[in-house]
Structure formats: structure tokens, C-alpha cells
Amino acid sequence: QRGCPTFTKHLADKIVSLIQTDLTGIMHTSGSGSCTWMQFAKEICRLASFDVPIRAIETKDLSLPANRPANSVLLTTRTLPMPLWESGIKEYLQLVGK
Q: What is the DSSP letter of 18?
């Protein structure tokens, strides 16, 4: 599965900045860039200095209650750019003292 992880502080900052514009309608916004869940987990472990094994699995092997799209990357051309998803991890880890 591919998506755009979004740090909630970045999202809150984006909402405040959007409120201050003349834009109207539905806005889709998310962290810039995209990654798979595995890439996301590996980057978290790398930045937090966690030495744990991570192995790929298929979505079908998760026994989820609902189907998930293989690609949930949002089209964000109508809004202002947000920071890269990797910077969200870095900022979060700094906030929690890692």
C-alpha cells in the first residue's frame, strides 16, 4: 500500500493557513511525497535508532475488515504544499525526545 503519511502538526498548520486564504471547496492535503507502509516503518526505525527486523507482507495477509486501496496518494494540486512525510517523522521524534 502506498500513501502520504501526514504529521498532525503539519496538518493543523496547513488548516490555519488555508483558513487565511480565499480558497473554497473541498481541499485534499497531505504530507508531500509518498511511501509504502514498509518504507514508512523503516524510516521511523532508522530515525529513532531502533534496530528491529522489518519484513514485507501482502495487504491480503492482514485480514483487514475492509478492502484498502493499493494507492491512496491524494492529489493536492489545489492547496499549498506541505512538508515531506520524512520531516514529519523527524519533528515528531524531536517533540517526544527521541
A: H
Residue 9 in contact with residue 42, Cβ under 8 Å? no
- Please state, in angstroms and rounded to a whole number, the distance separating the CA atoms of residues 19 and 29: 13
Can you say how many angstroms the Cα of residue 20 is from the centroid of all Cα atoms in its chain? 24
Residue 57 CA to chain centroid, in angstroms? 19
Please choose, from the candidates 96, 77, 94, 78, the residue with its C-alpha nearest in 3D space to the C-alpha of residue 86: 94
Residue pair 70/59 in contact by the 8 Å Cβ criterion: yes
User: What's the CA gap between 76 and 23, in Å, rounded?
Assistant: 13
Burial classification of residue 33, based on how many CB atoms lie within 10 Å of its CB (0-12 exposed, 13-18 middle, 19 or more buried): middle
Report pTM.
Answer: 0.83
Over residues 13-33, mean pLDDT: 88
Rg (CA), the chain: 16
